[in-house]
Amino acid sequence: MMSTRDDYERILNHILGLMVVDQYGNLTYINKQCADYIKVDQKTSIGKPVGEVFPATKLDEVLRGNKTHNTEFYFHEGRMSVSLQAQIIEDGKVAGALEYDIIQDLENLDSLLGKYVLSLKNEVDFYRERVRQLKKGRYSIENLIGSSQAMENLRKQIVMAANSSSTVLITGETGTGKELVAQAIHNLSCRFSGEFVAVNASSLPESLAESELFGYEEGSFTGAKKGGKKGKFEVANGGTLFIDEINQMPMTLQPKLLRALQEKKIDPVGSEGEKYVDVRIIAATNKPLKTLVQQGLFREDLYYRLNVLSIEIPPLRERMSDLPELLEEKVKEFNKILGKDVRHIDPAVITKLQNYAFPGNIRELSNMVEKAMHFASGDTLYEDFFDDLNLHISPSNLNHLGSLPRPIDEVKNQAEKKFIEEALIKFQGNKTKTAQFLKIPRALLYQKIKRLGIKTELLF
User: Fold this and answer.
1) pLDDT, position 338
2) How many CB atoms lie within 10 A of CB 440?
3) pTM beyond 0.85
4) Engineering a disulfide at 269: which of 63, 101, 216, 304 sits with its beta carbon 3.0 to 4.6 angstroms away?
5) How many CA atoms are closer than 13 Å to the CA of 446, on its beta-carbon side?
6) What is the bridge-based pairing of β-strands 196-200 and 168-171?
7) C-alpha span between 178 and 291 (Å, rounded)
């Protein structure tokens, strides 16, 4: 246990370059290590102005300044040191200052600089990841739910595509998750820190499709924004542009899309010059492009330019072993959205849904679970909650239909109800557009909704 002045002095002498001054800048303490290092007499230095003892010091600046702490690099008489300085505060006033070294030789400085460079790298990596999280698409490969062989194969294809810079064509039925796969490719690729921009070709009016994709210059047409507007290609520069339903890309625009793919150049509407864009294209279709090419509805050269790497997403009916995992994930998702606390799924639910064909795939499953969870008041999802869902005829419900008085009428009603629901979903509940699509009066649509028991509030 320390108790003598000599004990404290011995410890203080192990601090590199320690010196203390009073409020006037006179040296009140200097340890032996510091005195030997700057080559002065320890005893006779006490009481002298610190500038006389160590001319290079900046302690007097700390005394007079507003900073309570400071770091200083010294190079004096061929010697280098890095010192920390601090004001000594008593009763709210500066009563003096002290200084000690953290480095007194170049070897330790090299070591410190090496650690600093590593720290900077870690900081850059940290903020790069933050930027990646902000810029990346919503989904990654971890969002692909399922342990079936089909899903394992899909993950391998995504990794392969991510390690390439080639154009990717994703095929699959409606609702299989083509955009999810595209985002997973982007987030695994070297472009992960760039933008992921998605556009649906079916939603592009032909008259505006060119300006939406390639942008326009100010004054290029009536109604053009002041200063012009960047198109999807420019927004995605350095990143990935995902074009969904590429099969519905207007024929008039396909040559310009081909040129952008081949030459990485675009011509904004109204521009007199070209713009270079570094964009990776991932396209998706739910229709066989090869067939459309044969029918003259899609350019053959564009098809081959898009179809460099192809990924086909399996429909849900071909990977029914994944259904329990998918159900569990969807229940968790809608627990958060709907404020529910469903933690269990009745095995009868899985049995029932595994006998369904799921023409709408994952999107349809998601819609089913959301509807069913509106009926859940406890912690379990039961089979009864799915009774109002229009399941396709399968071996398990064929006997049930056969037991009804008018089974054909029941099948017709199911088909009609399903068709109207899908149309309502397509037009986001807009009954005028839905009626026009179905080619029936709007009043008749309302009658059918009522007769078939369609719960429009549960469709969205």
Assistant:
1) 87
2) 14
3) no
4) 216
5) 4
6) unpaired
7) 20
Residue 446: C-alpha distances to residues 106, 154, 441, 451, 454 (Å)? 85, 43, 9, 9, 10
What residues of the chain score a pLDDT lower than 50? Answer: 1, 134, 136, 390, 392-396
Q: What pLDDT does residue 393 have?
A: 46
Strands 79-90 and 93-103: antiparallel
pLDDT in tens, 172-190: 998 999 999 999 999 999 9
Tokens of 226: 């002041």
Q: How long a stretch of residues is the chain?
A: 460
The residue written with tokens 């369609």 in the block is 454
* Span 41-52, pLDDT tens digits: 999 999 999 989
- In 3D space, the residue among 204, 217, 288 whose CA is nearest the CA of residue 254 turns out to be 204
Question: For the chain, how many helices (H) and strands (E)?
Answer: 20, 14
Q: Which residues pair with 197 in a beta bridge?
A: 241
Separation in Å, CA 293 to CA 201, 228, 296, 298, 400: 17, 35, 5, 5, 44
Q: Which two tokens stand for residue 363?
A: 């999107």
Instruction: Tell me if 182 sits within 8 A of 242, measured CB to CB.
Output: yes
**End-to-end CA gap in the chain:** 75
C-alpha span between 86 and 61 (Å, rounded): 11
